[in-house]
Amino acid sequence: MNASPTQPTLRVRQRKEREELILSEAERLLSxxxxxxxxxxxxxxxxxxxxxxxxxxxxxxxxxxxxxVERGLEQxxxxxxxxxxxxxxxxxxxxxxxxxxxxxxxxxxxxxFEGSDARELLEGLRRGQSMNHRVSGLLQAMARLIDQGxxxxxxxxxxxxxxxxxxxxxxIRSLTSSNLVGHLPGERADxxxxxxxxxxRGLLVRPADKEAAR
Amino acid sequence: MNASPTQPTLRVRQRKEREELILSEAERLLSxxxxxxxxxxxxxxxxxxxxxxxxxxxxxxxxxxxxxVERGLEQxxxxxxxxxxxxxxxxxxxxxxxxxxxxxxxxxxxxxFEGSDARELLEGLRRGQSMNHRVSGLLQAMARLIDQGxxxxxxxxxxxxxxxxxxxxxxIRSLTSSNLVGHLPGERADxxxxxxxxxxRGLLVRPADKEAAR
Amino acid sequence: MNASPTQPTLRVRQRKEREELILSEAERLLSxxxxxxxxxxxxxxxxxxxxxxxxxxxxxxxxxxxxxVERGLEQxxxxxxxxxxxxxxxxxxxxxxxxxxxxxxxxxxxxxFEGSDARELLEGLRRGQSMNHRVSGLLQAMARLIDQGxxxxxxxxxxxxxxxxxxxxxxIRSLTSSNLVGHLPGERADxxxxxxxxxxRGLLVRPADKEAAR
Amino acid sequence: MNASPTQPTLRVRQRKEREELILSEAERLLSxxxxxxxxxxxxxxxxxxxxxxxxxxxxxxxxxxxxxVERGLEQxxxxxxxxxxxxxxxxxxxxxxxxxxxxxxxxxxxxxFEGSDARELLEGLRRGQSMNHRVSGLLQAMARLIDQGxxxxxxxxxxxxxxxxxxxxxxIRSLTSSNLVGHLPGERADxxxxxxxxxxRGLLVRPADKEAAR
DNA sequence: TATGAATGAGCTTTCATTCAT
DNA sequence: AATGAATGAAAGCTCATTCAT
Lengths: 214, 214, 214, 214
Hints:
4 copies of one chain form a homotetramer.
Chain A: H1 11-33, H2 40-47, H3 51-57, H4 61-85, H5 91-105, H6 109-112, H7 118-127, H8 130-151, H9 161-176, H10 178-181, H11 188-203, H12 207-213
Helix pairs in contact in A: 1-2, 1-4, 2-3, 4-5, 4-8, 5-8, 5-9, 5-11, 8-9, 9-11
The structure holds a DNA duplex.
């Protein structure tokens, strides 16, 4: 009489799938063109559904974007947490891996929110709390990785972990948006690696410090 | 008819002045509200001129913003060049000063381009070439400061100057937009200073290296 | 398959019941929000059925509203006819009672058709003829009451009954919509009663006339 | 240097003219199709201007309709006031003339507001006060006419003037919207006249009363 | 030269109606 | 028979850009 437990309502699954489809396409358009230039009709067309259908899933454009942000933050956080489990590898390598993964897989975060009334959008998300949790969660996950490095003697304990997180994300953000990188000589990948390592240099325990500590 | 040679420009000078006025006001609106929410009519009103007059100076909204970007880049570059002259001060201090100045005096660069079709905007600027020059100029000016530091033995010569520049600007950008910083504990100013210094730590010549070099 | 002849209607009766349910709820929404703001989905939800089901009964929103109007006219007419039976009471009192009942129990007739393309709606109803019959029936039922009054010597025979009917309904309509009444001093109920009586004054046989008739 | 006093800015006059044009056409469409079915684009087309131009004069559709209402009330009031001046004619005749003029000149008051969220619209107008003044002014102007009739011994002083006003407007409203009248036999004009007179009968001083007063 | 009235493409959002399940 | 997901026409409103004055 009722749906088998292994098949949670089919309908629901299809709905979820379509939602995923919308979000993915929207994320692409968002990172390509920014909030204002994401046109609902165009989005629908690309997904291959009617304009109104989007509104069945996301009552306002704002909500659509909010969902994308949350999804992104969630993915990033789980990525980082996964890395936090591999305690056999040095923290610095794991962090670098995380950063590369973020940079590669991810999406012009910077551009994404262009032209939303970003202030209002974020404000709204913030009021809804979930954004706060997600962002805080992301930052803390990253900080945990750094703390692992400190505990392992890799990183300098005098450097505030949260400050390091900010610096790392700063580099990610900048490398992600092509603004500057586009103007630099050399391969993009090289620049990325070198930049990440530069920040690490500031974070690593210095031989001299160890010396001094004796 | 009788334009004196020393003042061929009365007209021209007024024109230039007004152009400056437009740009200044536009820059403010831009950093406050982003590209899409910069409304030409509102701008004209604030400047105290007619809407159409703006179009006498900048045929398209895009051009107006392009001019602002160029002007900003120019100012930054000259700021940095000025600092490059004060060779009596340590490079690291001068760089930090530059960074603070950029961050303080500056303009939500991040928000400024929100809602432009950034790709198209930049593409257009690029086609006009001048953007390329300006950005390259800015990066190179900064790189020169770093090179000075290297020459003075402050900075590690093995670190690529351009990479360092990218990292520095990355931090600036991130600290400028409140996205992350807003989620951090502590005073904004403290976070900024700490972040800058973290990058410097990675740049400074390490005592241990010196030791090893002996 | 085995529908007993006395109850061929189990299905049919249920269908009729649901139709009644839809109409009642629709009438409420209609009088509260007007035609345009009557949303089919909301209606379905309130009735507790699926949106599509409504369309099984009424192929178009227009038809739904048409049915409501007819039902309303029918009810009013039967109300009046019932009153026409109580010949022991004075016609004027019975008419006043009818009017109060209409005003009280009734439904912002005025608001109900807000936002329909009333012309088209009525046109459509008219094409279906039935509307004409209903309205005529209503007016005639009321006229019959007045004629009773004339026969009883209560009302002046020189006043055209139909004109009196129009005037009476005019007052009802106006008193029903709060537009004017809201701007008047005094209690709503008092205004209503006084207005009705004013029209009656014009309808009653005048003592002076009687005098003259002697 | 400044515009001659007899020619108040030409611009301003043209603007006023166009505004008048918009209002007139809007009033027609409004009375024909009701608020919801008044489509801004269609209105613009009929007036022969661009859609946006309307918004230059009336920032919201609501404002446009508000202006129409005010204009209408103003015209009515001044019509009535003018009539109030002709004290040489009997009040009843002047009132009848006013009513005919109202009915002829303005038609679908009733239909005009259909489908606005009338509640909100009126609420808004009411909050803005101006509506209150206008409507009160209109009712009072009419009441003044009736008072003149009372003073002249034409009308019965025991009938509340405001109640009479309500009844008169009730008739106007009803006769204006074709709902009922369309279903009546006879000429529209005749019905109108007869209805008005019926109400007057209720208002006039009765010979019998005079008799009694002796 | 400077203006701002006029324009209309373009956007988000709503909702009657259809139709596969 | 009953449902509600999907659709897309339609509508109000904004604002970059033009152009008559």
